[in-house]
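Narrative summary of target 7.
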Amino acid sequence: MEQLVTSDFKLGIIAGGQLGKMLALAASNWDLKTYILDPNENCPASTICTNYTKGDYNDYATVYEFGKKVDMITFDIENINTEALLQLKKEGKRIFPEPEILKLIQDKGLQKQFFQEHTIPSSAFQLFTSKDEILTAIADGKLHLPFVQKLRTSGYDGKGVEVITSEVDLPRLMEGSSLVEAKVNVKKELAVIIARNSKGEMKSFPMVEMEFNQEANLVERLICPSSEPLPIQEKAKALAEQIISNLKMTGILAVEFFLDESDQLYVNEVAPRTHNSGHHTIESCITSQYEQHLRSILGFALGSTEIKIPSVMINLLGEKNEYGKVKYEGLTESMGIEGTKIHIYGKKETTPYRKMGHVTILDKSIDAAKLKAKKVSETLKVKAWK
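Modeled conformation, tokenized:
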């Protein structure tokens, strides 16, 4: 049954970061009222939503009361109180992606077990409850270096992850329940964003390549379309379809991959929300990931994911050693570079490597777009007022 949308329809978005802001902007095209829940009254979405509620999205009562005010709930972050969402769903509230799926994906250990149960290729792993347990496994010969440790919950944007390559790195092991997985010999990191609506219709965006800032472990540059051969792109698309189908999920799912030196694909992680690896779709694809998410949760037909023009997306990160009230240097020069689309999220304070915005560079030639992106990266800087 088609979801009724009227000018009084209230879409609740839990968390009002840059993803929530861009989702609310897309919703405004259809005259949807957007209600934002976020602990920061100056969050990016607060200036453009219909209604802002200050509150902790990890608090049961706060999430529950917020959910009672709206017609449908979605979110732009995984770290949410799922027990409140499950209770709201039990009472008839429409929540997409489904809270049961969010609860599974919140736990990286459960996520890996899901991949294993459904024969999704992913690196070998073990689960541990403490740092001491990991050290004991190494001493007993049950765990071998190198490996990657990930906290099972609460990690994001490179936080909660440690790459352990030798014994010198062992003091960096984190305390707490964690996933330890074999380190893949990565040639490239790739991503596919896929949407599934309530009718089971699926559409994926073209595969993208991601280049990381090694110090911050954050995406620094994203290239679309990928230069990888078509069979690899088709394999990644098929795996994304398999995952979202097995989850029976409604909404947008971002699937991140490792491609090793032997051209084998491994699923790294998934995120049940709009994603950093899909920002470029606003300008470079017929349908943006934000509109596609709305189409999927509202039960509409999914939009075309065809590329209009190749693109390179770069994240605007706070410069190293810069703390305080933000200022942007090089805006005028960057805007003079043809095909440059700048998005500033509206965060008031900058810190090193904080995501403050992104820039999408469009060009019929991907090589030309890369050259322009390099120039923008060298020109546009996120600093703090001194």
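Residues 230-247 form the longest helix (18 residues).
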